[in-house]
Amino acid sequence: MCSSGLLPNLVTYSILLDGFWKHGHLDEALKLLKSMQEKKLEPDIVFYTILIEGMFIAGRLEVAKELFSRLFVDVIRPTAHTYSVMIKGLIKEGLPDEAYKLFRKMEDDGFTPDSCAYNVIIQGFLQIRDSSTAIQLIDEMVGKGFSPDSSTFQMLLVLESHDEIISRFMRGSSLETPSGLENLSSSASKEVRNKQSEIPQLFNLTMMMLTRKSAFRATASDSRVLQQHMEMGIFPSSFLFFNHHHISTSACTEKPSLPKNNGGFVSNNSTDINIDDAIASFYRMVRMNQRPSAVEFGKFFGSFAKKKQYSTVVSLCNHMDFVGVSHDVYSLSALINCLCRLNHVDFAVSILGKMVKLGIQPNVITFNTLLNGLCKGGKVKEAEELFNLMVRRGHGPDVISYNTIINGLCKTGNKGMAVHVFKKMEQHACKPDVVTYNTIIDSLCNLGQLNEATRLFKEMVGKDAMPDTVTFNILVDGLCKEGMVSEARCVFDIMPEKGVEPDVITYNALTNGLCNEGKIKDAVELFNEMVRRGHEPDVISYNTLINGLCKTGNTSMAVHVFKKMEQHACKPDVVTYNTIIDSLCKDRLVNDAMEFLSEMLDRGIQPDVVTYNSIVHGFCNLGQLNEATRLFKEMVGKDVMPDTVTFNILVDGLCKEGMVSEARRVFETMPEKGVEPNVYTYNALMDGYCLRREMNEAKKVFEIMVRNGCAPDVHSYNILINGYCKSRRMEEAKSLLAEMSHKALPPDTVTYNTLMQALCRYGRPKEALNLFKEMCSYGLLPSLVTYSIFLDGFCKHGHLDEALKLLKAMQEKKLEPNIVLYNILIEGMFIAGKLVVAEELFSRLFVDGIQPTLQTYSVMIKGLLKEGLSDEAYKLFRKMEDDGFLPDSCSYNVIIQGFLQNRDSSTAVQFIDEMVGKGFSADSSTFQMLLDLESHDEIISRFLRGSSLACDVPGIKRLLPSQWRESKFFDNIYELVGVPVVTVQLRYNGWVTELQDLERSRQLRQASGLDNLLYTPDADFSCFADLALTSPEDYYIEGQGSLLQCVLTPGDPYMSLTNDKIIERVSKQDIEISLLGKLCSSSFQSSVARFMSDQGFDAWTLEL
């Protein structure tokens, strides 16, 4: 511009200045001012006002004040707007006294405050809660003929202490309740009297200001302010309202011109009403010399009610009273409707009283309106009283009256009374309609009374009250929720016959029912049918199908549907994501779940506590407690407060990993977070202690639970009983069973199974049998687990006849035994030498269609070999392969041991070659048999081609084939001399060789560490191993940690020591080499074995 020779003027500079301060570039604005002055272009008052306002907005108070002072130095006359900007800025900066002084100085300087100035300073004082000054200024403003703007009104409404201000404008009035209505609602009358004592004059003041100078045109914002007055309970001196079922409440979004028929007033037939013009029309009606009748006013209010302008109706009715226009039944009914819509039912009741007092007879619409308001407000008892009053006064209730009261009764759970009213309808010549039937049927379905609901549905059809889509939706949903999906499908299929088209809600209900029954294929077909028929699935449709797929293990298909959902422009919600995330976590795909969590956040969908619970649970199930804890902290950091489920997941996860101390700390923080532990929390913690055999601590948790008022359930007792049983504390376990009976808490099958299994294991089968009889006497049916416990006990203790009787008893009770029971029974028969019975049982498997397992074949092969039937055993081994069961290490060891035992070395060699070729190794029993066999050279040489072996010097001399001595390397072995060896076994409450993860080393749920033979130069033991890891089938014990075996060579220094001293020294060295320093405790069980020079395995063992 300047380069073109055009000089900027004051307008140009003001434009730039305004832009600078609006975008926060205030330094540039001040530079611009300086530039103007240098160019001898003096800024005007507009320029200064813009700059002062900008400085206040930026919080630069001193600069703003300096600019204002400069005005008088430069002889620039401020305007009323300049003063308003200064006043507003000073109040904003917390300087109300300066603002007030400036306001008064403004008058002294010859600037009479205008409406803007008053509103600015009033808003400022209201903002800082200075109500007394605000009242003074409001009085002054009104006295000068100015009106508050919408912002001032809004601040009055939202101010917490607005009653003090508003009370200054209140005038007294009274509303009396005529006789006959006193008992309708005493509480309602009391509330009305209390409110009437505080009816604000401010409302009337508002109307006066809006109608000043014989002209009125309310703005839409004024209408909204009036509505907010009403919603806060601020009412003028008298009122009206109503919304009958026939009045539409849909709002029109357009504002066309006001129709000019009916003498320039609003016609009740017009639905296109401009609110501003309508209000103006009302005041023209009021000012007319010959006012329209009350009927016209009633129609006018009906038009407002259709537009949901309820507060406006109330205020206009008040103005009718103010100017002396009489009400009739229509205007007062409209007022009752609007008051009910605004949740001021108590005032509506008073208006009914006013109608009676004025001699205006309420009609059925008036009563229906008030009935509806009372029911929606939860005052069903008062609604019943009004209904009875209506009947007593001869106002015959119509179908809407009955529907309203029936609906209210159903929603408050008073189904019996609702049905009673329903039956009374026809007795009073009022025919139920489809709404009546729908209400009753829905209530019956919610109560699970489907037979009654179906009967009523058939009755409905028979009485020509044709069901609509809502009726069918209620019935389909109710049937599905009760598991009667086939019946729901039948109802769905007859809809077209009745001329009713299913909608999305119908399809969703039936899809949900199919999914709950696991009929996912049918659910998908129904979903596709819905789409083919032109019904667009909504988010509930997709969520239902996705949930069904996830519950049936089809997570990948659920993810596919999730993607299709997005392609069809249906946005997933938090429920959709939660369903997918939970299913992924259950499938152990927690990383994929975390990706969905990130996607949620990217899309602005906030995860809730359910989202985090699913993923935390997923990490716990994987044993990743660090990740679970990290996510827990992230959850809290994002203000998603954990609930009881969250804490239960963490406590349970930590306990299962053996981290009971950490679980206890989490448990103890729950009250601090405002979350109370429940029975599941206590049970998880007790189970953690039981897994560690810390029964005293477990019992303490149980006692805390009882002391805190949390009643133990049957699972609580089962946990403790199981813990005592595994700790061999049977008397305490049995005492808990007795305690359950005393506390009227019936034991379940699990309780008895736990006790009976322990008694059988510890050689007390008779006691177990007594418990079995007790269990049956309580009506508890034995399960397959129960029978397997007894079969195992009978077989192991030689009571085979009882075992067979038990099998027969099962079959008589139509309880078919499974393969586990048959395996136990077959093995027991072989042990007892009952070959024929064992073979019959095995043959019966195929007759009964029961699939044998590898263990079944191994049991049979072992038994046949024991009976000397090597050929049959060999054939069965090969048949096992033909039947699709590939032999494992156990199978090979069983058959090799059998042939070695029967001195069939050639077949043993064949199987050893085969086993080694498949990568399997001999177990300790097979090795021992090889060592004890006289002609073992050939066999061992074949085996050692693919194996490795560690043993003592005497043992290796016996083991090596004689032909190997041709090699100098092997011949040197025979020059070795044996030395004394001491072997020490230490059982720890953690995993000694887990050196990477501290938490995993402390848990006892899963073995963890190095499963190799280990060596160290830093201790007296030359080699060591964790037997619980290297030979888990023999040494791993659930709930216990490492069994560290340390080999002390040479053992001479230790041979003369006591076992206690040996254990003390070895455990100390363990700690010194820092293998055990990471463990939470050094508590252990131990044993010591000593091997003297060349005498091999002749040793003694002391259990401590």
From TrEMBL:
Keywords: Repeat. PPR repeats lie at residues 9-43, 44-78, 79-113, 114-148, 328-362, 363-397, 398-432, 433-467, 468-502, 503-537, 538-572, 573-607, 608-642, 643-677, 678-712, 713-747, 748-782, 783-817, 818-852, 853-887, 888-922. Pfam families: PPR (PF01535), PPR_1 (PF12854), PPR_2 (PF13041). Coiled coil: none annotated. The keyword Repeat applies. Belongs to the PPR family. P subfamily. PANTHER family: PENTATRICOPEPTIDE REPEAT-CONTAINING PROTEIN 3, MITOCHONDRIAL. This is Uncharacterized protein.
